[in-house]
Amino acid sequence: MKTGDRIQNSMWLCPICQAALQRQANSLICESRHSFDIAKEGYVNLLPPNKKRTAEPGDRASMVAARREIHNAALYMPLADQLCSLVSENAPHGEVLDIGCGEGYYDGHINTQLPHVNLTGIDIAKPAVRSAAKKYKSNSYAVASSNALPLPAQSIDLCFSIFAPTNSDELSRVLKGGGAYIEVGPGPSHLYQLREALYSNAHEHKPLRTEIAGLQLVETGDLDYLNDLTTPLVRAIIEATPMAHRGDPNMKSSLLERPSMQLTFAFSWRLYQKPPDQPVE
To answer: What are the structural domains, with CATH classification, of the chain?
Structure first.
């Protein structure tokens, strides 16, 4: 599929008036003539200025680059495989939405393993969306907020989010009846050795939630494994997370003098389902 084909065939709604957007030349335009330019990489910015909390919301370009380095090293490959398995079981030919898509690492795995899935991704960070759209041209991407998904009601077969915030009302609105939502978060011991080396009072992560209004929890799972990391990869993990600006500076300097470090990667996932549509009597 050529660059922009998915944009042209996408379901995007105008973030101002919620009318359908149609492609005209290199823009998406609604019936009220609100217009949004399509970037050369193929994504569209649907995050209105008055909805931004900062001038450049979301991950910085340096965080996106660090995350790309981590993913290129296949540190999260087992999680990507687990996600593909869940998508395959629940929406092998459907419309799939990645909420908080980042630079699209997991989308790329879905493209490879599940070529019949139609994949759409949103993120509030423009550098991340730009990177995703540039690399994964068969998908449709937009800069947008998870609190106001620019998509029609009941248009998505499966949503997923990995370490990203979501809005329960919006999840329920965009999912079709019987549709699924996969939420992935850190397991209690995720990167614990790293936090222990940076903080004097390191704590385990809190358990992932098990209740979402309007959705039913149908399956849970955990994934844990160890990786031996070189110092450059340890530095990349720090840069890609809030740890970049937290922790004791002296402890961080000492940590980065080590030649390598063994880290625990731990994830919890929850599979929810929207109740099927009730037949009309």
So the answer is: 53-273 (3.40.50.150)
